[in-house]
Protein backbone atom coordinates (compact mmCIF):
# COMPACT_ATOMS: atom_id res chain seq x y z
CA UNK A 1 0.00 0.00 0.00
CA UNK A 2 3.02 2.28 0.52
CA UNK A 3 4.31 1.89 -3.02
CA UNK A 4 5.13 5.25 -4.56
CA UNK A 5 3.39 6.23 -7.76
CA UNK A 6 5.72 6.66 -10.73
CA UNK A 7 5.91 10.09 -12.34
CA UNK A 8 4.18 8.90 -15.48
CA UNK A 9 1.42 7.00 -13.64
CA UNK A 10 -2.02 7.52 -15.16
CA UNK A 11 -5.41 6.42 -13.90
CA UNK A 12 -7.17 3.94 -16.19
CA UNK A 13 -9.79 5.32 -18.59
CA UNK A 14 -12.69 3.21 -17.34
CA UNK A 15 -16.15 4.13 -16.12
CA UNK A 16 -16.71 4.79 -12.43
CA UNK A 17 -18.36 2.12 -10.32
CA UNK A 18 -21.36 3.24 -8.22
CA UNK A 19 -22.49 -0.14 -6.89
CA UNK A 20 -25.39 -0.70 -9.29
CA UNK A 21 -23.65 -2.65 -12.07
CA UNK A 22 -21.84 -5.96 -12.20
CA UNK A 23 -18.74 -5.74 -9.92
CA UNK A 24 -16.99 -8.55 -11.80
CA UNK A 25 -17.13 -6.60 -15.06
CA UNK A 26 -15.73 -3.47 -13.41
CA UNK A 27 -12.98 -5.43 -11.68
CA UNK A 28 -12.02 -7.14 -14.93
CA UNK A 29 -11.71 -3.81 -16.75
CA UNK A 30 -9.53 -2.41 -13.96
CA UNK A 31 -7.23 -5.45 -13.83
CA UNK A 32 -6.72 -5.28 -17.58
CA UNK A 33 -5.74 -1.60 -17.31
CA UNK A 34 -3.45 -2.36 -14.33
CA UNK A 35 -1.71 -5.05 -16.35
CA UNK A 36 -1.22 -2.61 -19.22
CA UNK A 37 0.31 0.06 -16.98
CA UNK A 38 2.27 -2.50 -14.90
CA UNK A 39 0.87 -1.42 -11.55
CA UNK A 40 2.42 -2.93 -8.45
CA UNK A 41 0.19 -4.47 -5.79
CA UNK A 42 0.22 -1.31 -3.67
CA UNK A 43 -0.46 0.97 -6.65
CA UNK A 44 -3.41 -1.21 -7.64
CA UNK A 45 -5.02 -0.60 -4.25
CA UNK A 46 -4.47 3.16 -4.42
CA UNK A 47 -5.66 3.53 -8.02
CA UNK A 48 -8.61 1.15 -7.69
CA UNK A 49 -10.16 3.49 -5.10
CA UNK A 50 -10.21 6.33 -7.65
CA UNK A 51 -12.71 4.38 -9.77
CA UNK A 52 -15.38 4.40 -7.02
CA UNK A 53 -18.42 6.69 -6.94
CA UNK A 54 -21.52 7.17 -4.77
CA UNK A 55 -22.39 3.89 -2.94
CA UNK A 56 -19.00 2.31 -3.67
CA UNK A 57 -17.16 5.38 -2.41
CA UNK A 58 -19.29 5.49 0.75
CA UNK A 59 -18.57 1.81 1.42
CA UNK A 60 -14.82 2.33 1.11
CA UNK A 61 -14.88 5.40 3.38
CA UNK A 62 -16.42 3.43 6.25
CA UNK A 63 -13.78 0.66 6.15
CA UNK A 64 -11.61 0.63 9.29
CA UNK A 65 -7.93 1.54 9.00
CA UNK A 66 -5.80 -1.50 8.18
CA UNK A 67 -8.72 -3.50 6.79
CA UNK A 68 -6.91 -3.96 3.48
CA UNK A 69 -3.47 -5.54 3.48
CA UNK A 70 -3.18 -6.39 -0.23
CA UNK A 71 -5.01 -6.01 -3.49
CA UNK A 72 -6.19 -9.61 -3.23
CA UNK A 73 -7.92 -8.76 0.07
CA UNK A 74 -9.31 -5.56 -1.45
CA UNK A 75 -10.63 -7.55 -4.39
CA UNK A 76 -12.38 -10.11 -2.15
CA UNK A 77 -14.00 -7.43 0.04
CA UNK A 78 -15.20 -5.56 -3.04
CA UNK A 79 -16.82 -8.61 -4.66
CA UNK A 80 -18.44 -9.67 -1.38
CA UNK A 81 -19.90 -6.22 -0.73
CA UNK A 82 -21.51 -5.85 -4.15
CA UNK A 83 -22.39 -9.48 -4.82
CA UNK A 84 -26.09 -8.57 -5.06
CA UNK A 85 -25.33 -6.42 -8.12
CA UNK A 86 -23.76 -9.27 -10.05
CA UNK A 87 -25.40 -10.04 -13.36
CA UNK A 88 -26.93 -13.48 -13.52
CA UNK A 89 -25.03 -15.60 -15.95
CA UNK A 90 -27.16 -17.14 -18.69
CA UNK A 91 -26.95 -20.83 -19.39
CA UNK A 92 -27.32 -22.77 -22.62
CA UNK A 93 -31.06 -23.18 -22.07
CA UNK A 94 -31.36 -19.39 -22.44
CA UNK A 95 -30.64 -19.80 -26.14
CA UNK A 96 -33.66 -22.05 -26.63
CA UNK A 97 -36.13 -19.34 -25.60
CA UNK A 98 -35.04 -16.83 -28.24
CA UNK A 99 -37.90 -17.13 -30.71
CA UNK A 100 -38.40 -15.31 -33.98
CA UNK A 101 -41.34 -12.95 -33.63
CA UNK A 102 -44.16 -12.74 -36.13
CA UNK A 103 -43.19 -10.51 -39.07
CA UNK A 104 -39.70 -10.06 -37.57
CA UNK A 105 -37.02 -9.84 -40.28
CA UNK A 106 -34.45 -12.62 -40.24
CA UNK A 107 -31.64 -10.11 -39.70
CA UNK A 108 -33.18 -8.69 -36.52
CA UNK A 109 -33.86 -12.15 -35.12
CA UNK A 110 -30.28 -13.24 -35.79
CA UNK A 111 -28.94 -10.13 -34.06
CA UNK A 112 -31.03 -10.85 -30.95
CA UNK A 113 -29.87 -14.45 -30.88
CA UNK A 114 -26.19 -13.53 -31.22
CA UNK A 115 -26.54 -10.95 -28.42
CA UNK A 116 -27.88 -13.68 -26.14
CA UNK A 117 -25.25 -16.19 -27.27
CA UNK A 118 -22.47 -13.76 -26.32
CA UNK A 119 -23.68 -14.02 -22.73
CA UNK A 120 -23.34 -17.80 -22.86
CA UNK A 121 -19.67 -18.24 -23.77
CA UNK A 122 -19.76 -21.92 -22.81
CA UNK A 123 -22.34 -22.73 -25.50
CA UNK A 124 -20.90 -24.92 -28.24
CA UNK A 125 -21.33 -24.49 -32.00
CA UNK A 126 -23.75 -27.41 -32.08
CA UNK A 127 -25.92 -26.05 -29.26
CA UNK A 128 -26.18 -22.61 -30.85
CA UNK A 129 -27.06 -24.06 -34.26
CA UNK A 130 -29.75 -26.27 -32.74
CA UNK A 131 -31.22 -23.48 -30.62
CA UNK A 132 -31.35 -21.00 -33.48
CA UNK A 133 -33.01 -23.46 -35.88
CA UNK A 134 -35.65 -24.57 -33.39
CA UNK A 135 -37.65 -21.33 -33.24
CA UNK A 136 -37.31 -20.05 -36.78
CA UNK A 137 -40.51 -19.06 -38.54
CA UNK A 138 -41.65 -21.22 -41.43
CA UNK A 139 -39.71 -19.20 -43.99
CA UNK A 140 -37.15 -19.79 -46.70
CA UNK A 141 -34.22 -20.33 -44.29
CA UNK A 142 -36.20 -22.79 -42.19
CA UNK A 143 -37.12 -24.80 -45.28
CA UNK A 144 -33.50 -24.75 -46.43
CA UNK A 145 -32.26 -26.05 -43.07
CA UNK A 146 -34.96 -28.71 -43.06
CA UNK A 147 -33.79 -29.96 -46.45
CA UNK A 148 -30.09 -29.64 -45.71
CA UNK A 149 -29.33 -29.34 -41.95
CA UNK A 150 -26.08 -27.90 -40.59
CA UNK A 151 -24.43 -28.84 -37.31
CA UNK A 152 -22.11 -25.84 -36.84
CA UNK A 153 -23.34 -22.36 -36.02
CA UNK A 154 -20.72 -20.78 -38.29
CA UNK A 155 -22.10 -22.72 -41.27
CA UNK A 156 -25.61 -21.66 -40.31
CA UNK A 157 -24.52 -18.00 -40.25
CA UNK A 158 -23.09 -18.29 -43.75
CA UNK A 159 -26.35 -19.68 -45.09
CA UNK A 160 -28.47 -17.20 -43.15
CA UNK A 161 -26.52 -14.31 -44.70
CA UNK A 162 -27.77 -15.31 -48.17
CA UNK A 163 -31.40 -15.31 -47.08
CA UNK A 164 -30.95 -12.03 -45.22
CA UNK A 165 -29.70 -10.42 -48.42
CA UNK A 166 -32.69 -11.86 -50.29
CA UNK A 167 -35.15 -10.52 -47.69
CA UNK A 168 -33.63 -7.05 -47.79
CA UNK A 169 -33.71 -7.00 -51.60
CA UNK A 170 -37.39 -8.04 -51.59
CA UNK A 171 -38.22 -5.42 -48.96
CA UNK A 172 -36.46 -2.71 -50.97
CA UNK A 173 -38.34 -3.72 -54.11
CA UNK A 174 -41.65 -3.73 -52.26
CA UNK A 175 -40.94 -0.29 -50.82
CA UNK A 176 -40.11 1.05 -54.27
CA UNK A 177 -43.38 -0.32 -55.64
CA UNK A 178 -45.26 1.22 -52.74
CA UNK A 179 -43.76 4.64 -53.43
CA UNK A 180 -44.65 4.38 -57.12
CA UNK A 181 -48.23 3.40 -56.28
CA UNK A 182 -48.43 6.33 -53.89
CA UNK A 183 -47.21 8.72 -56.57
CA UNK A 184 -49.73 7.34 -59.05
CA UNK A 185 -52.50 7.63 -56.48
CA UNK A 186 -51.57 11.23 -55.72
CA UNK A 187 -51.50 12.08 -59.40
CA UNK A 188 -54.78 10.24 -60.10
CA UNK A 189 -57.84 12.42 -60.76
CA UNK A 190 -60.29 13.00 -57.96
CA UNK A 191 -63.38 10.81 -57.64
CA UNK A 192 -65.39 13.97 -57.95
CA UNK A 193 -67.16 13.85 -61.34
CA UNK A 194 -65.29 15.60 -64.09
CA UNK A 195 -67.10 18.68 -65.29
CA UNK A 196 -66.80 19.90 -68.84
CA UNK A 197 -65.42 23.44 -68.55
CA UNK A 198 -65.52 24.34 -72.23
CA UNK A 199 -68.81 26.19 -71.91
CA UNK A 200 -68.29 27.50 -68.40
CA UNK A 201 -67.85 31.03 -69.71
CA UNK A 202 -71.13 30.96 -71.58
CA UNK A 203 -73.91 33.19 -70.20
CA UNK A 204 -75.90 30.16 -69.08
CA UNK A 205 -72.92 28.67 -67.22
CA UNK A 206 -72.05 32.02 -65.66
CA UNK A 207 -75.63 32.39 -64.51
CA UNK A 208 -75.56 28.95 -62.91
CA UNK A 209 -72.23 29.72 -61.20
CA UNK A 210 -73.76 32.88 -59.73
CA UNK A 211 -76.79 30.91 -58.54
CA UNK A 212 -74.50 28.30 -56.99
CA UNK A 213 -72.15 30.78 -55.29
CA UNK A 214 -74.91 32.97 -53.86
CA UNK A 215 -77.11 30.05 -52.85
CA UNK A 216 -80.13 31.38 -54.70
CA UNK A 217 -81.57 27.89 -55.10
CA UNK A 218 -81.32 24.68 -53.11
CA UNK A 219 -79.28 22.11 -55.04
CA UNK A 220 -81.04 18.71 -55.22
CA UNK A 221 -77.90 16.87 -54.12
CA UNK A 222 -74.63 17.86 -52.41
CA UNK A 223 -71.19 16.86 -53.64
CA UNK A 224 -70.93 14.34 -50.81
CA UNK A 225 -73.85 12.45 -52.27
CA UNK A 226 -72.32 12.26 -55.75
CA UNK A 227 -72.54 8.80 -57.36
CA UNK A 228 -69.28 6.88 -57.16
CA UNK A 229 -69.54 5.39 -60.64
CA UNK A 230 -70.70 7.24 -63.75
CA UNK A 231 -73.93 6.01 -65.32
CA UNK A 232 -73.32 7.79 -68.63
CA UNK A 233 -71.01 10.31 -70.29
CA UNK A 234 -73.36 13.19 -69.50
CA UNK A 235 -73.18 14.93 -66.12
CA UNK A 236 -75.35 17.68 -64.67
CA UNK A 237 -73.74 20.00 -62.15
CA UNK A 238 -77.12 21.16 -60.87
CA UNK A 239 -78.43 17.68 -60.01
CA UNK A 240 -74.92 16.36 -59.32
CA UNK A 241 -75.85 13.22 -61.22
CA UNK A 242 -75.44 11.54 -64.57
CA UNK A 243 -77.99 11.30 -67.37
CA UNK A 244 -77.98 14.77 -68.97
CA UNK A 245 -75.67 17.76 -69.20
CA UNK A 246 -76.00 21.00 -67.30
CA UNK A 247 -76.94 22.79 -70.52
CA UNK A 248 -79.77 20.29 -71.13
CA UNK A 249 -81.20 20.54 -67.60
CA UNK A 250 -84.81 21.76 -67.86
CA UNK A 251 -85.10 22.02 -64.10
CA UNK A 252 -82.17 24.43 -63.94
CA UNK A 253 -83.48 26.50 -66.84
CA UNK A 254 -86.83 26.87 -65.09
CA UNK A 255 -85.11 27.92 -61.87
CA UNK A 256 -83.04 30.54 -63.70
CA UNK A 257 -86.15 31.83 -65.46
CA UNK A 258 -87.93 32.08 -62.10
CA UNK A 259 -85.03 34.04 -60.62
CA UNK A 260 -85.02 36.43 -63.58
CA UNK A 261 -88.75 37.01 -63.16
CA UNK A 262 -88.08 37.85 -59.49
CA UNK A 263 -85.41 40.40 -60.35
CA UNK A 264 -82.25 38.31 -60.00
CA UNK A 265 -79.50 37.68 -62.59
CA UNK A 266 -80.33 40.87 -64.48
CA UNK A 267 -76.68 41.22 -65.49
CA UNK A 268 -77.14 38.23 -67.80
CA UNK A 269 -80.33 39.53 -69.45
CA UNK A 270 -80.53 41.95 -72.37
CA UNK A 271 -83.88 43.78 -72.73
CA UNK A 272 -85.00 44.75 -76.22
CA UNK A 273 -88.15 45.97 -77.88
CA UNK A 274 -89.52 43.06 -79.78
CA UNK A 275 -91.33 43.97 -82.99
CA UNK A 276 -92.50 40.46 -83.48
CA UNK A 277 -92.32 37.03 -82.02
CA UNK A 278 -89.10 35.14 -82.65
CA UNK A 279 -89.07 31.41 -83.49
CA UNK A 280 -87.50 30.86 -80.12
CA UNK A 281 -90.28 32.71 -78.33
CA UNK A 282 -92.92 30.68 -80.15
CA UNK A 283 -91.27 27.38 -79.34
CA UNK A 284 -90.42 28.18 -75.78
CA UNK A 285 -93.62 30.08 -75.12
CA UNK A 286 -95.80 27.07 -75.86
CA UNK A 287 -93.75 24.86 -73.54
CA UNK A 288 -93.64 27.51 -70.83
CA UNK A 289 -97.41 27.99 -70.88
CA UNK A 290 -98.01 24.28 -70.33
CA UNK A 291 -95.54 24.09 -67.45
CA UNK A 292 -96.57 27.33 -65.76
CA UNK A 293 -100.32 27.15 -66.33
CA UNK A 294 -100.97 26.28 -62.69
CA UNK A 295 -98.12 28.39 -61.24
CA UNK A 296 -99.19 30.96 -58.59
CA UNK A 297 -96.63 33.32 -60.07
CA UNK A 298 -98.51 33.48 -63.36
CA UNK A 299 -100.53 36.52 -62.38
CA UNK A 300 -97.44 38.40 -61.26
CA UNK A 301 -95.66 37.53 -64.47
CA UNK A 302 -98.63 38.70 -66.53
CA UNK A 303 -98.54 41.94 -64.59
CA UNK A 304 -94.87 42.31 -65.31
CA UNK A 305 -95.52 41.88 -69.02
CA UNK A 306 -98.28 44.49 -68.97
CA UNK A 307 -96.05 46.90 -67.08
CA UNK A 308 -93.46 46.70 -69.84
CA UNK A 309 -96.05 47.92 -72.31
CA UNK A 310 -96.90 44.48 -73.61
CA UNK A 311 -93.47 44.11 -75.13
CA UNK A 312 -91.93 40.64 -74.98
CA UNK A 313 -88.72 40.09 -73.03
CA UNK A 314 -85.85 38.47 -74.89
CA UNK A 315 -82.92 36.86 -72.99
CA UNK A 316 -80.66 37.55 -75.94
CA UNK A 317 -77.31 36.81 -74.27
CA UNK A 318 -78.52 33.93 -72.12
CA UNK A 319 -81.20 32.06 -74.03
CA UNK A 320 -79.80 32.15 -77.52
CA UNK A 321 -76.60 30.35 -76.54
CA UNK A 322 -78.06 27.98 -74.00
CA UNK A 323 -81.25 26.89 -75.73
CA UNK A 324 -79.98 26.88 -79.27
Automatic annotation (TrEMBL):
Ranges annotated as biased composition (Basic and acidic residues): 279-288
Domain spans labelled Retrotransposon gag: 47-136
Region ranges (Disordered): 174-201, 279-324
Listed InterPro entries: Retrotrans_gag_dom
Cited Pfam families: Retrotrans_gag
Origin: domain of life: Eukaryota
Protein name in the entry: Retrotransposon gag domain-containing protein
